């Protein structure tokens, strides 16, 4: 098939550090423990170290941009899609290049009966967007009934692009909210805002993955 599929399970850091082949491929990645993943430009100072130590949650860092993401086993579908610079889907414009991947997730959700729409431009004015990935919305990401369900980021070189896609199967923001360096007023406000801004898809991971693969050329 045009899009070979591989599966890996392990720590979030080991999965982010995988050296994937720079050619067409779909990688389904599963974490083995609850983890907070920092964006490439974030420092550990955004986290409450005492809360992290007390809960035993793991901390990892990705090389793609964006805010903090919370990963729990079974809580999301994590899929990395890789293309080479010679691929017909390659686009030198970083922002625009998200659109074909986002269209795939939008189509996959619509095919399953969801009212999904794709974000066509960045919205950086949302509260908490610089701190938490799912608080903001960027080109290619997908919302269902007004709530963000698919987050995207990417790593790229001159030879390949690795799109990192996360679909929420469970939208509970507790993992992220409880471990950030916030005062209690901010924590309550973030919990409330994320509950309104994000949502979980109403489908299982395998069903959704198969629908997404069906959207790829």
What labels would you give this structure?
alpha+beta; BirA Bifunctional Protein, domain 2; 7-stranded mixed beta sheet; 25% helix; globular
If you had to describe this structure to a student in words, what would you say it looks like?
Helix 3 crosses helix 6 (205-215). The chain contains six helices and ten strands. Strand 3, helix 2 and strand 4 (58-61) form a beta-alpha-beta unit. It has one domain (5-88, 122-135, 153-210): Bira Bifunctional Protein, Domain 2 (BirA Bifunctional Protein, domain 2). The protein starts with a strand and ends with a helix. It has 217 residues and is α+β, with helices and mostly antiparallel strands. The chain has helices spanning 12-16, 49-55, 99-111, 174-177, 184-197, 205-215, and strands at 5-10, 25-31, 35-38, 58-61, 69-71, 76-84, 116-118, 142-144, 147-156, 160-168. The longest helix is centred in the last third of the chain and has 14 residues, at 184-197. Helix content is 25%, strand content 27%. It has a seven-stranded mixed β-sheet with strand order 1-2-6-10-9-8-7. The chain has a three-stranded mixed β-sheet with strand order 4-3-5. The mean pLDDT is 96.
